[in-house]
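Archive entry. Fields below.
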Amino acid sequence: MKNITVIVRNLPLNTRRNAEALRMSVGLTLCGDKVTVIFMDDGVYSATPAKPELVGAPTLKKEFEALPMMKCAMIADKPSMEKRGVKSLVSNVKAAGRDEIVRTIEGSDIVIPF
Amino acid sequence: MQDMVIMATELDLRGEVCPYTFVKTKLKLEELESGEELIVTFNHAPAVENVPRSLKNEGHKILGIEEKGDHLWKVRIRKA
Amino acid sequence: MKLGILLTSSPENENTHTVISLSRAAREEGHEVSIFLMYDGVYNVHKKEFAELTERGVSIAVCALNAEQRNVKKVDGILFGSQYDHACIAGDVDRFISFG
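PREDICTED_STRUCTURE:
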């Protein structure tokens, strides 16, 4: 079994990248590997309870439901949140300090910045 | 004759795309006993090729793929 | 060694050139190479260099959903597969590099 970490870093509404990173993360669990998603930099906005459907962008509801079901951990980088004034996160995503982020990356066999 | 009396569980995955087509099929199979059958309905064309191929890779048996109409397929699976 | 490569950017990005060169070099050294194309990376399937890579023994798979979304048609020798195939590549390889 491998530890795979996916890093979500983009603004959520300008691109489908973040939605695709999460869909890919669901897929990466399918061969028994352990997947962790880190929301970092502008990617933390994707982990907030936003309403992208109001501007015709895809919601991440399905991904946020599936990821915990597939035992995939989700963490948001605290310094990125503080810098952007992000205070609330969707359930199942927890804020983590840089030490935990570094430990997660250090313990990964594969890191995919998406 | 014996095959005809086997009850199969049905799963409707219309509207689902990859990887959820496979995820939901896999989770449903986990609820079944070995040898039990599952019939899954898809309307996502790539899933009809890819889900059976992936399930075979996991050791399950594909008993048949039936086209039921325009962009609608039923895949019959026997759990390993 | 088994090398896995994920490519998510479109062909005008320098990543395409890097992936092609890296894959060729790895094959010349006798390594196994598997490439997964997803997101805008699926646009690379029509590049002749990718067909040449398959002839050199590189295994290439594409996310069929992303290809369908972008109207990218099937190409011989390339698997129009799923995220499950990507998971198998990630699980199987010794080294994995992502280009996006």
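CURATOR_NOTE: The mean pLDDT of chain A is 96.
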